[in-house]
Amino acid sequence: MPTKILIGFADALAAPECAFSLLDAGYDVVAFARRGSKPPLRRVNGVRIVEITSPGDDADIAVLDVIAIADEIGARVLMPLDDASLWLCAEASRRGTDAVIAGPTGDLALLALDKRRQLELALSAGFAVPETRTADEAAMLDPPDLPLVLKGRLAIARVDGALTRAPTFFCGSERELDAALSSWPAGQPLLAQPAITGVGEGMFGIARQGTPHATSGHRRVRMMNPRGSGSSACQSRPLTDAETSAGDAFLRLSDWDGLFMIELLRDPSGKLFFMELNGRAWGSIALARRLGLEYPAWAVRAALDASFIPEQHQFNAMLCRHAGRELVHLLVVMHGPRGSRPPGWPGRWRTVRDVMRISRADSWYNWRPGEPRFFVEDTLRTLQTQLSRSR
User: Alpha-carbon distance 284 to 288, whole Å?
Assistant: First the structure.
């Protein structure tokens, strides 16, 4: 019988490509979803969807649901695909599930979810780090000069028994800063950083006891929201010696094990800043897979086999695009920014040209031969979700 892998959440950005990677490796894939949701992943042949209590309603019950489902289906491995599921899987490990966790647990899970700890470690590793001020409550914050970015110190936090994610605000004026601080959710620690313009980059790979393997680099070509968000189009890039040295030190100092994505920002002068660590599958996993880097399947194999080390691949140039996010990017730029105009906001007609120009060499997120219905529903769901949030 194929080895059963329980992944989640089914609506995570990385979920489709992770499921494809695991299916292609011969695993039996089950994905957990919030009760009542209808993730497009349900359209993929070979993937079974099971429902759990939303951790946004009750985090403890959600953990118990994940443990019960893993036991019921005989899952060998639990694999988190976003920050909420990372918290759930780490907590399931602490409470004694029989499944192996293909993700961080214990102190590594705390590091993966705490941006302040990441920034402190990154500074020790040799990365440049933006000036950062933190506070446990909004009223206690001494913010840096404007413009600035205000975001949660924790990637996900448990408040009053439920998991919540703090918003991110770009503040270009005192009025915007006052509005952001006054609406900041109670119980959520926060951090503030100068708004640095530049290009988002990343260092990716899988680590074994603090040593990185099969590393690769991505660069954002466009963000879904130019004010700051995940990419809608990204391309591969070679890693520099400086970032490789700092990245290796970061992983060694943390004794990291498993998948990692070190998110970076390169400013117009070429200076590279550490932004955060993602200790689980990331949004642009599609680009990695088009390059032959089967990180999800490797992460599961590494969780089951302590001796497994993936081989390093040669660099290849490639562009990968997300159809739904590209359309959202176009709509956001055409509508214009809310509030003050951030530096580097793209021009309308150039954006129309760039988004609508399609090359045969382009690769696409979440495209799988024989699954066109899923690709269409995923694109439409992305548009629906993002436009609803915008409203």
Answer: 7
How far is Cα 211 from Cα 226, in angstroms, rounded to an integer?
34
For residue 250, give both structure tokens: 């970061």
358, pLDDT greater than 70: yes
- Of 293, 276, 308, 287, give the one whose Cα is nearest residue 100: 308
Q: Which residues pair with 211 in a beta bridge?
A: 208
What span, in angstroms and rounded, lies between the C-alpha atoms of 70 and 64?
10
Return the CATH architecture of domain 198-391: 2-Layer Sandwich (3.30)
Question: Domain spanning 4-101: which superfamily?
Answer: NAD(P)-binding Rossmann-like Domain (3.40.50.720)
pLDDT at 347: 84
Share of the chain above pLDDT 70, in %: 97
Pairwise CA distance, residues 168 & 192, whole Å: 10
Please list the alpha-helical segments (H only) found in 291-371.
295-304, 323-335, 348-356
Other beta carbons less than 10 A from residue 336's beta carbon: 9
> Are the C-beta atoms of residues 19 and 47 closer than 8 Å to each other?
yes
Q: Tell the burial category of 322 from Cβ atoms under 10 Å away from its Cβ (0-12, 13-18, 19+).
A: buried
pTM score, two decimals?
Answer: 0.94
- Condensed to tens digits (0 to 9), the pLDDT of residues 252-265 reads 999 999 999 999 99
Q: Where are the domains of the chain?
A: 4-101, 131-194, 198-391
Cis status, amide bond into 204, omega within 30 of 0: no
User: What pLDDT shows up at residue 138?
Assistant: 94
Helical pair 106-113 and 83-95, crossing angle rounded to 10 deg: 160
- Own/partner pairs for 334-337, CB < 8 Å, 24+ apart? 337/226, 337/227
* Cα–Cα dist 52/59, whole Å: 10
- Name residue 375's amino acid: F
Beta bridge partners of 57: none
Q: Give the C-alpha distances (Å, rounded to integers) separating 331 from 172, 221, 346, 362.
A: 22, 17, 12, 21
Residues 6 or more apart whose Cβ sits within 8 Å of residue 352: 330, 334
